[in-house]
## 1
Amino acid sequence: MKLASKVTEIYCIADDFCKEYHLELNKTSLSLSNPSANSPKHRKRKGRMSDAEMITILILFHSNTFRNFKHFYLFYVCRELKKEFPDLLSYTRFVERIPRVAIPLLLFLKQGLMGECTGITFIDSTRIPVCENKRQSRNRVFKGYA
């Protein structure tokens, strides 16, 4: 089954989550009853691309075999998924807006897409060099841990 066939399904789940997330965020956020001249103004206009669309594209990237996000966005999303995402942003603008959806994306993945633990866990055992080998006896960064 192709990944492109799952776009609508992922988008619907992400959109439902984003609607609930923004409702909860608006309920629990502080509001100023008497805004002063020094308080920052908040933009109320919606963007060209919704948070759910951005989350969908980011999930598709991590589910695909592309090595970097730039090629995925420019050569797959902009060409193959233009019909599914008609209001695409430029690559630069999309990357600038990723931090805006980082927390909703992580909450979405934690809440809905995390699987059950089967009891088997794999840990990456890639070495992370902290210092040069000749100085490793004097290094105290991970003393007692590694």
## 2
Amino acid sequence: MGIKFLRILFCVATFLITFMTEAKIIETVTIENIIPLIDDDTWLLVDLDNTTFEGKQALGHTEWFYDKAHAKMRNGMTLEEATRECYPEWIEVQKICPVKPVEEAFIPALVLMKQRGIVIMGLTHRQPSLVDSTLRQVASLGLNFLDSAPVKTTFAVPSETPTMYIQGILFTGEFNKKGEIFVRFLSIINQQPKKIVFIDDKRSHVEEVEMALMGLGIEYIGVHYTAIEHVEKVYSPEIAEFQHKFLNKILSNDGALLLMQHGLE
């Protein structure tokens, strides 16, 4: 076995050991298992839809949007085409769509960590066109990312499609990768945390951020947060369709069911 080969083997082993100590991904159904992972040097990044909150009713729930997009894809549209086609209606519905926490303990846990001085910010695939609705929804939960954000300014992160960082939430847009936009965000604000914990209901997003941070010397824990899979389902296609008839005065699921049962359409 040659010296050159041994050197290469040593370099590869060193890289793998370094990477394994810097990054890992876990899966959990509750915020209680995440709190012990967060120390004073941690930046906590949290996804919004189906992680921090979900729609209170079928119409406007994330699953409603996915259903509409998938229906268009079955008719031959690409994912990007279907998303663009559905987004205007998604924007209008979000203007009046109330939200609720996915897990009751989630918001109180964030508040307690904010009191500890932990840096906390939102990281969402929502487009900048949803800024106003999103800020209203977040505030309705008694939550405010601005006072725990790494920076207080408002700016766009250069990318192929629009982005926006405002009030402690980074809106990456539907077609950009969360990890890539976040790394550019760090470059703009000229900061590098020692450790990042990122919570998202989609494992693919957690892995994207992991890949983007690779080699930056940042300890990373990605949390695939599956609480949404274990709560009572809010979305029903039939209820959402009925609620759409009352779009200007959105109905709760219970209210819509009552009218449907009595044939009051």
## 3
Amino acid sequence: MTPRRAPAPRSANVVERYSPFQARFFALYFERYFRRHMNALRLTGATRVRNGGAGPLILYANHPGWWDAALYLILARRLFPDRRPFAPMDREMLEKYAFFGRIGAYGVDLEKMSGAADFFRQSALILSRDDSLLWIAAQGRFSDPRERPLGLKPGLAWLCEAAPGAVLAPVAFEYAFWTERSAEAFAAFGEPVPAAELLALDREVRQEDLSRRLAETMDQLARDVVSRDPERFETVLTGRAGVGGVYDAWKSVAAVARGGRWDPAHRKGARPGFEGDR
């Protein structure tokens, strides 16, 4: 009887596990999923981070909802196509959905001392690559964008010591309904800061400085979202506008009968194009 072949052992090294092909596949999948369920993805401040220079990039963000992880993949492909994105993930969830390990997720259990040590070890390994992009949900839990203080996890300040050549930038996420039946997703990128500059501060002051930068980015994004002005944003992805069904079909027929063109968006100009939207 031929013995069963044991499954090939999976590498514990998050960098070796990463598959660019699978990461791109899932980014495209989530873009399609986003288009089906959301109205638009709107950004501010992305240019300053795109031009942040060489070396590893750490994007630390608030964590308002489920969509955040999908935006990690979408924004990495859209804004940083030459970087390899990574993000920590709850260890139990990663064991349940192992494929996430192929697209940059690495398991952590911050409730244990060994889990914290493993997080630091794997993060340092990722940040040893100049082309790495490390997403950090800095609060370590879901939280409302209006919550203050932010309560960032202390490990964030340590990352500066692990990668003194890195650049850090705060990212604020928010979701809101404007004029369409589907929600808008927003991401605001704050001013980048070199890790070497932050190392001049002691760890506690450094943590406070990082928290202040993120809170200011979140506050500015909130003001932009409240304005409901799409001109304040760069729109990188659009979904399906309108009510759909019989209502939109009737309005479309009526528009054609008048010799016009049917636009399902409720607000004119609410869905600007973007040269990268493909």
